[in-house]
Design a protein that fits this description.
Strand order of the largest sheet: 1-8-3-6
Radius of gyration: 15 Å
Structural class: mainly beta
Length: about 150
Amino acid sequence: MAGRIALVEAYDADSNKATSAEKLVNIATRARAGAGDAALIAGFVVSGSVPKQLLIRGIGPGLVQFGVDEVLLTTELSVYAGDRMIARNVGWGSASESAAIAAAASKVGAFGLTSGSADSALLAFFAPGAYTAQVTNAAGATGVALVEVYELP
């Protein structure tokens, strides 16, 4: 069966921000992912005038606990501003901020990742602007993956 592509968009259309406390704080998409044109891509925009702290995750092996079959066994997460890569992670548990990533996931209600798993995650401040988070596999393997973007309070 040929690959299929879908686009899901979510917007906060409230024009009266001064009286509204609600906002979109998480978006996630699950699909088949791989290398090159098979990348799983989530576009997101940081609004306002100050940087916001975001937790961005590329999950493959972590989906097994939910009964998902044929997962992407190793994820590579890259974040781009336009065509410029600004952040990258392979193996969230080996990241210098792995304890902070785990704490942030708990804070936003995200399911936990196994220490040492081949899932990927980044925790960083992002200036206002448009970005894409891309989940791939450098070895060219394909499988089911999840890309998530959370805004921390």
